Amino acid sequence: MWNRERFDLKVRLALRVAAISAACFAAISAYFLITADRAAHTRNDGIAAIVAKTLELQQGKVLWTASPRSDFPNLDPVSAYVMTPGLCLAFRGTSGEMLQRFCSGAPVTDDSPPQIFTAFYHGLFDPGREAARPVILRGTKLGEAVVSVDPAVQTAEAWHEAGRLMLALAIALPLLCVLVYAALARALRPTRMIRAGLEQIAAGDLTARLPPFDLAELSAVRDIFNHLAESLDTALAERAELTRKLIALQDEERRHLARELHDEFGQSLAAIRALASSARQTAAQECPSLLGECDGIARTATGMMETLRGALFRLRPPDVEELGLVASLEGLVAGWNGRGRGETRFSIRFDGTFETLPATISANLYRIVQEALTNAAKHAGATRVNLELTMHDDEITLAIDDDGRSTDPVAKSGMGLLGMRERVAALRGRLSFEVGPSGGSALRVVIPLAAAGPQALEHAA
């Protein structure tokens, strides 16, 4: 069964034109058949009038000559002039009996009409209907002149004429459909360009523009499309710039917070541990019962320093610009493998040259990987995470696959994923996150090198 929504516009319009044309042909054929039937009855009425007048003259002649021999009615003189194939002439007396009847034979032909047409024609019309005219002489009705046509002959004539129309329809209708389809295909050819432009916009290529069109309607669509593309490109550029500033401000806040924590809490914890060590020495000499409390204070201070060191590492990561993206990510993965104690295994693979990668892209990629690993390990409970970073031609692709819980709302749409989307959007890239039906998730990030500007492309080339 055809799907109406997927019907080609050209095919649909061509079929509609064909249907309308067929309806017009049917109306013309019906009009022709009706006109032909009326013409046949009018002709029969005229012949009946001629026959009646001829018979009246014959009877008048008989009375005028007072001839005892009368050949009334005699249809032979008039039949020589009016007879056609299938025509019947008759004279019916006042008592209703046929006093004389003369019929010409129907022509023998192999082109007989189909039964369905015969039934249709007999249902709509009344072929063979008699045309009668009274024969009157001196005010006295002598009888009727009756004219009729063989129904088979009249039906065959109608089929012969209708057949020509059907033949014309059979030839003209397919030709008309082909011409309409070709004309529509030519007129709608610019819609392919419009579709290609929309696909480019959907793929993130906001440089797509449509050329001028000949049709006024399509030219209006083209103007709106180009204006929309320009507006969207400008809006995304402004949004990306704003996102870059917000991310830069966020990173600066993180660095400031890291300095504050290091300077204040780090020194305070170091002082607490030193005081605990001093108090332990004093307790060992004067009050041995306090040694346990001193050791507990020292252990607590050491644990807090370890926690602070981890927080400082997350707030202020290694200098990616100095160490390079590859070394920074390898260190990040090694740190997660070290802290996991065998519970979560991380692996990373590189394909490409990343030494000359622009600092903007490197820093954001590091943050994206950092957030993705945190989501996979802490929120999704993944036991295996595979990372792959590739750089080909003019774009970088990051693929992260894990076997974590697919129903975790944080892993799906938490603030971590939102932050990653903002970073990717700031680099004019694309991000996709898919959840497997039986668990696990796949994160894909594609970033064009053009996001860092022409200079970055020159260095990365």
In short:
The chain has 461 residues and is an alpha+beta fold. It has helices at residues 9-65, 76-82, 115-124, 151-187, 190-202, 216-286, 291-315, 320-323, 325-340, 359-379, 409-413, 415-426, 454-460, and strands spanning 87-93, 98-103, 131-137, 140-149, 345-351, 384-392, 395-402, 430-435, 441-448. InterPro entries: HAMP_dom, HATPase_C_sf, HATPase_dom, Sensor_HK_TwoCompSys, Sig_transdc_His_kin_sub3_dim/P.
Structure description:
By secondary structure, the chain is of the alpha+beta class. The chain has three domains: 4-187, no CATH class; 193-241, no CATH class; 319-461, Histidine kinase-like ATPase, C-terminal domain (Heat Shock Protein 90). 62% of the residues lie in helices and 15% in strands. The chain has 13 helices and nine strands. A five-stranded mixed sheet has the order 5-6-7-9-8, with helices on one face. Strands 2-1-4-3 form a four-stranded antiparallel sheet. A hairpin with a 5-residue loop joins strand 8 (430-435) and strand 9. The longest helix is centred in the middle third of the chain and has 71 residues, at 216-286. The two termini are 54 Å apart. Residues 1-5, 408-414 and 453-461 have low confidence and may be disordered.
What is the element layout, followed by pairings?
Layout: H1 9-65, H2 76-82, E1 87-93, E2 98-103, H3 115-124, E3 131-137, E4 140-149, H4 151-187, H5 190-202, H6 216-286, H7 291-315, H8 320-323, H9 325-340, E5 345-351, H10 359-379, E6 384-392, E7 395-402, H11 409-413, H12 415-426, E8 430-435, E9 441-448, H13 454-460
Parallel strand pairs: 5-6
Antiparallel strand pairs: 1-2, 1-4, 3-4, 6-7, 7-9, 8-9
Helix pairs in contact: 1-4, 3-4, 5-6, 6-7, 6-12, 9-10, 10-12
InterPro entries: HAMP_dom (IPR003660), HATPase_C_sf (IPR036890), HATPase_dom (IPR003594), Sensor_HK_TwoCompSys (IPR050482), Sig_transdc_His_kin_sub3_dim/P (IPR011712)
Organism: Bradyrhizobium campsiandrae
Subcellular location: Membrane
